[in-house]
# Entry
Amino acid sequence: MLPMSIPSPSQGVWHLGAFPLRAYAFAILAGIVLAAWVATKRFTKRTAGGTFDDVLEITFWAVPFGIIGGRIYHVITTPEPYFGVGGDPIRALYIWEGGLGIWGAVALGGLGAWIGCRRQNIRLPVFADALAPGLLVAQAVGRLGNWFNQELYGAPTTLPWGLQIDPAHLVIDPATGARFAEGTLFHPTFLYELLWNLVMAAVLVWLDRRFRLGHGRVFWAYVVLYTLGRGWIEALRIDTAEHLHLFGVEVRLNVITSLVMFIGGVVAFVVVGRLHPGREEDARRVVPVVAAEAGGNDPVTAEAGEGDGDVSGTERVTDTKHS
# Structure
């Protein structure tokens, strides 16, 4: 039987002496580790040329870029706690309090991944396809941090899985302008997104195996599936956020963002599929081969073209013996 409500954790911070241990930080770190593990498993199996060291180096660049980008996006889309009336700008630096916007994390994290891929001689779309299910797993685990922080919950509900919120974490009722009454239950949007992301991660893996997606199509499928769920989950939330007025209706900015990203993901998935059907055979941008010449095995490098990564369709071949 379902419980009559879901309790919130009694605390989200523990102290080891003067050092605080925050559940939110552990959730984010656990998500990063799981995403890297999923990416490693998939990256080394889906195509030739990928190694654990490649994933480690690319992750080293992508993670800090992603955290910075996620925080910047959150502050831009939710400026009131920092720059509004009674806000504290310095709190924009307090990442441990929660607040990482996924699209900022993807944008700057993608830049970091691109740098790592260039350094490791890896094609970015291949890595993005390997990582995509892991991103959903990481986002699912990260939502546990919101649960511990008692934040980003949804509107009041009478459903049996309503979420309990401590009085200190109750937000303002948009309808009345007063804080919600103690004992009010809310939609557990952290749980909705956690479950959605895990199911969609499994769907991505199945789609990839069934249709041998490549050239970034798994990543674009991730964008489509994630925003499909994020849109309706975001619409349930009542936390402080930027709103836009469309056709006389006030809509949360993140809902609009999800809609735009959904459409963009669908278009990119279709266009890339038409231009580059199939999957790359090698993860590397420049593929080393062995020259079949008498007198030795001199190394030759071949830059993979826009096809499936087969060196027979290269753009440039350089024989290091005669160059």
Q: What stands out?
A: Residues 13-275 form one domain. The chain has two domains: 13-275, 286-319.
